[in-house]
Design brief:
16% strand; alpha/beta; 246 residues; 2-enoyl-CoA Hydratase, Chain A, domain 1; 9 strands; globular
């Protein structure tokens, strides 16, 4: 069974996390597939928008910690690193449908989406400091810009989970949907994007993101710090406790 599912519908490439036994935790192979499917869609003129979602009423519980620890050298060819930079370089719009857990990368990748929809079961968390790590995906600059410094400090430094209504109030998501309507709502919005004039859509998207190089630089700084933290004694202790608990 593939851990990443993909189907193309009316100009929309729907990419689904499909590892329910691990609450859709992302391992390195899944990162490789995600990047491949996004890059293929970027070069395919028939694909005009992307939709990210999760199977089994879960978006993603974040990184597969054990797999990540075995592959902790965060060079440019590391699958997770390539995925993060791929998100930053996308020209075509990205929509997300969030149900259940959206932890770590499950929340930070939403900062790169154009439209995000969630149901009331969605639970978000940025537990990097809890694991003696630092944020990734440019979250240390994108989140304060979105919600203000004090709220970003609360989310990143206290690292407590928050619900979908809080995410809506923070403008991290566009709208709340019922569980039954979530997937169809997100797909309908992605189809609407796919029906727009593609060049105008992509240029407008680029004009709305004038600080891409600044975010790229911040991502580089984050990854340097993340790699250092992975090797630290306090991170090793936190990971060991996490793996023992899970």
């Amino acid at each position: 069974m593939s851990k990443i599912l993909v189907k193309d519908l009316d100009g929309v490439r729907v990419i689904s996390f499909n590892r329910p036994e691990k609450r859709n935790a992302l391992d390195l192979d899944m990162y490789r597939q995600l990047t491949e499917y996004l890059m293929q869609g970027e070069s395919d003129n028939d694909i005009r928008a992307f939709l990210l979602t999760g199977e089994a009423n879960c978006f993603t519980s974040g990184n597969d910690v054990a797999d990540f620890l075995q592959n902790s050298e965060l060079g440019p060819n590391h699958p997770a690193v390539r995925f993060l930079y791929c998100l930053l370089e996308l020209r075509k719009p990205l929509v997300a449908a969030v149900s259940g857990s959206a932890v770590g990368i499950g929340t930070t990748l939403l900062l790169h989406c154009d439209l995000v929809y969630a149901d009331n079961s969605a639970k978000f968390q940025l537990p990097f400091v809890n694991l003696a790590l630092v944020p990734e995906a440019g979250a240390s600059i994108l989140l304060p810009e979105l919600v203000g410094y004090q709220k970003a400090a609360e989310l990143l430094l206290l690292a407590e989970p928050f619900d979908a209504e809080t995410a809506l109030s923070l403008k991290l998501i566009n709208a709340l949907c019922s569980k039954e309507e979530l997937q169809q709502t997100a797909l309908d919005k992605a189809r609407k994007l796919a029906s727009q004039p593609p060049q105008a859509l992509q240029q407008t998207r680029q004009l709305m993101r004038p600080h891409k190089h600044r975010v790229q630089h911040q991502m580089h700084l984050e990854l340097e710090a993340f790699g250092e933290r992975l090797k630290s004694d306090e991170a090793k202790a936190r990971f060991q406790a996490f793996l023992t608990k899970s």
